[in-house]
Amino acid sequence: MYAQLVDTGAKRVAAREELAPEDRAFQDRIDAGVKIEPKDPMPEAYRRTLIRQISQHAHSEIVGMLPEGNWITRAPTLKRKAILLAKVQDEGGHGLYLYSAAETLGVSRDQMIADLHAGKAKYSSIFNYPTLTWADVGCIGWLVDGAAIINQIPLCRCSYGPYARAMVRICKEESFHQRQGYDIMLALCRGAPEQKAMAQEAFNRWWWPALAMQGPPDKDSVHSAQSMAWRIKLFSNDELRQKWLDQTVPQAQFLGLEVPDPALRWNAETGHWEHGPIDWEEFYRVIKGDGPCNRDRLRTRVKAWEDGAWVREAAVAHAEKRAARAKAA
Ligand code: FAQ
Asked: Which atom of ligand 1 is nearest to the CA of 140?
């Protein structure tokens, strides 16, 4: 269902002396910490890498509305419902900022959405898992938004100006999201034994997909080296995963939840937690379109797009009428 790796033209990181003079000048600007803006000259592969990453990030935010959206009508209290509504709406907003940031690179929003719907563009693996109980909403906020913040705080300092600026506001909102998820888990873990059991059961299902969502291990990450040279990525996938693990294990312990990894251990020498083997076969299956909910997620997005056609047409007609009226006046 999914296309294979998008060819950005960057197969390996070229040594400085191999670069054409204009690419060397570009790399010098990156190395000096200069932000690249839309009208600045940039290598075609840099532009394509950013379009790939930013559009996939935008798609993740939009598709990411679906698992939690599933619980808006069933949130346990009015307060939880109001919070969840606001959170899901924030994710939609993040998608829109990110589509705008990607548009500055010369790709149209319609094209990006067409690529998503055709299965050519990816979105985060994590949103292909189902939300079976209310505790899943807690786990998404706590674990998934927690992982997203760790990935996204460094992106506020990435080399491409519009992406970095979009990330600043997004990160502020994500930190509220993470806390609301943890608050749900706290309420469940301090509640009745059935609630605690529900929290543990959801945690067991989300743990491994959340650990994998920072991307393949560094040795298999095809884009990391070049993206780090261009300061699109400031940390590697494994570095981000480690930060998430070190942050999350003590939080799970505070909740009284058991991490579903018999090999999990604290390494006193390194001062880091270590996890057991991740099932990368499952990860690749999911990102190629064969996860538990991939088909359902895409079907829902395509239907929403088709059902909304009349709204887009009406908005265009309205804008044209206003422009014609303004011209006549
Ligand atoms: N899922 O060479 P790398 C959120 C793909 S937002 C699917 O390591 P890269 C907020 C990758 O695209 C979550 N595909 O790639 C929220 C590439 O395939 P391609 C999204 C994945 O780009 C919370 C291939 O594997 N965040 O959660 C995944 O250097 C709650 C090889 O991988 C972002 O997008 C994956 N997990 O590093 C919303 C952040 N991992 O493109 C709602 C920005 C890897 O060649 C509710 N993105 N792949 O076909 C990034 O930082 C990077 O793109 C990575 C991947 C780290 C995701």
From this structure: 30
